[in-house]
DNA sequence: AGCAGAACGGAAGACTATGTTCCACAGCTA
DNA sequence: TAGCTGTGGAACATAGTCTTCCGTTCTGCT
């Protein structure tokens, strides 16, 4: 049985019938299912993805050489979303703070972090993936630093602090996805208010280093 | 052959020799190793604990009927620490805000959350454990509400928000334990500053409910 | 000195979970 | 109708892990 794919971006409304069309739809259904399953549990078995998608195992293996391939695809997609959001934020020339805040809200909303950092370590990373990650990090740093240089950010903070905030929010898991997103937005709002306290003293302790945050791409 | 136990805090400088003494020391070593291992990875194999403790598997099974027993012990200890800290905070009659802030700092410092919520779900909970958890939750609520009633907390927040903050901080994992603790203190400080903004508007979205936070004792 | 038994190390056993392959089959297409 | 693409799902292989078990070491007491 073929699912009516919920969510997901439609590309071209291909003919409703035909085997090719059904297969194409399964492409989407499978990706969406994989995203949902692995975001909820990065160590989930591949059979859980098939179940959630309402397809058999072979439908997965026809599309991906193995589990790692699927994981890499999801991770790469997440990274691309991250990059796109960062570029969008950088193109906002008006308010550096709002650009940063909006960027963070969109990243959290898209649950990009669960797709990148949380998945890293469950597969052997690719050269290509490494480049994308580096690019993503660089862009995010620019978004952050621009807000810093505009004097809109509490002193003592750096880009790695931002990454850690993403980490923390991605660890929040409630009943369903929508409720989780609500709560994450709520707590992100709290954090943003803390980051905006430009006249507050720097937070205690030595700040996180880029290396400490990057290391996780190989660890676990 | 018996290992020369490395590290481990000595309680009473009992006779340096004697088999009984070594066994008693192993009690400590094993518990400490289990804490460290399961805090780093709640799904770690029991052999990892033995390795870290520098003892054989049988040293564990002599003390605990099985893996779950050990997990329950750790969880119960964590809960008791939590309760003790909450009671200490309640006995501070001077500054409700500082009592709350200090409570949260100590809970995060002791990494209690990794011992309770993060471990829950890896074993079948006990009746006793449920009571302890309920008591812990009740006390924490009192600590929080006292600060609220003193007008020291930003409007719109509740005890479950505090639990979620613990969740988020417990998800932070860096190189070693000390560094992790540093960073957690840092980000807790940020969050506390956000909670202290009494004249800021309530954070967006419907607040978390106690049920949403409690549910995790049975889930997974 | 010598023995009983506590405490232990670690291999072997028993299972479970999971990634991957394989094959028979359905439905479109020509 | 023949053939090919896409599929379902059982079967297989394997790695990981909990638990048991047995031989060994060392202590404490007689």
From TrEMBL, chains A, B:
Coiled coil: none annotated. Residues 24-82 form the HTH tetR-type domain. InterPro entries: Homeodomain-like_sf, HTH-type_TetR-like_transc_reg, HTH_TetR, Tet_transcr_reg_TetR-rel_C_sf. Residues 45-64 bind DNA. It comes from the Bacteria. The keyword Cytoplasm does not apply. Pfam families: TetR_N. Residues 1-21, 197-220 are annotated as: Disordered. Keywords: DNA-binding, Transcription, Transcription regulation. Residues 200-209 have a biased composition (Pro residues). This is TetR family transcriptional regulator. It comes from Streptosporangium pseudovulgare. The lineage of its organism: Bacteria, Bacillati, Actinomycetota, Actinomycetes, Streptosporangiales.
């Amino acid at each position: 049985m073929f699912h009516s794919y919920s969510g997901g971006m439609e590309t071209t409304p291909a003919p409703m019938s035909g085997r090719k069309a059904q297969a194409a739809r399964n492409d989407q259904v499978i990706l969406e299912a994989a995203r949902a399953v692995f975001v909820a549990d990065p160590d989930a078995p591949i059979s859980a993805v098939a179940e959630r998608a309402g397809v058999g195992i072979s439908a997965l293996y026809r599309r991906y050489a193995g589990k790692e391939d699927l994981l890499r695809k999801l991770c790469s997609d997440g990274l691309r979303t991250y990059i796109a959001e960062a570029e969008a934020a950088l193109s906002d020339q008006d308010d550096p703070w709002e650009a940063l805040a909006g960027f963070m809200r969109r990243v959290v909303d898209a649950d990009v972090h669960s797709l990148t950092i949380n998945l890293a370590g469950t597969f052997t990373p690719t050269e290509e993936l490494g480049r994308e990650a580096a690019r993503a990090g660089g862009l995010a740093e620019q978004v952050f630093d621009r807000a810093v240089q505009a004097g809109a950010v509490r002193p003592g903070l750096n880009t790695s602090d931002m990454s850690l905030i993403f980490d923390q929010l991605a660890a929040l898991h409630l009943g369903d996805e929508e409720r989780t997103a609500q709560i994450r937005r709520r707590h992100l709002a709290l954090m943003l208010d803390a980051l905006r306290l430009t006249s507050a003293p720097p937070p205690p302790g030595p700040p996180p280093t880029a290396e400490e945050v990057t290391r996780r791409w190989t660890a676990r």
